[in-house]
Amino acid sequence: MSRHIPSSLHVPIDLVIVVPVSTSTHEIKLAQIRDTLRFVVHSLGPHDRLGIVNYGGEAGTTRMTSLASKLWPKWAATIDSIKATRSKGSSNIGMIEGANTALDILMERRAVHPITSVIVISDSAAAEVGTLDFAVSRAEAAK
To answer: Is 0.70 topped by the overall pTM?
Structure first.
């Protein structure tokens, strides 16, 4: 018996990944983040969409992409452009702004896929428990 799920059973997803880009995110971590994003793009199904937001850099929180399919021609350049920049403020505040920007992307959708998720990556050991409570509350209210 095959454990492979036929692609016809794949449920489309909307995913936004929020990544840190402050100078505290060392180049090795950023290389791992870029590799992971490349893997995610490669793994997207034909109807899946991905968005990327960065936080903690000199420009504050930045929407790098809106939701786009794996066929979007600028994935490689966008992912390669993820570099560490001087931090503008607290990583916890940046993380909250990043999560809220991810939710903004999801709220702007005209078509909603059955599975929606936001992944927030943090390299901060000082992230307080409950830091993202407001964003989680906002996401719950948007259901």
So the answer is: yes
Q: How far is CA 28 from CA 15, 33, 60, 133, 140, in A?
A: 24, 9, 21, 29, 34
Superfamily name and number for 8-141: von Willebrand factor, type A domain (3.40.50.410)
Joined tokens for residue 35:
């590799």
Tell me what the pLDDT averaged over the chain comes to.
84
CA atoms within 13 A on the CB side of 74: 11
Q: What is the Cα–Cα distance from 65 to 107, expressed in whole angstroms?
A: 14
First to last CA, the chain: 37
Site of tokens 């990327």:
52
Return the domain boundaries, the chain.
8-141
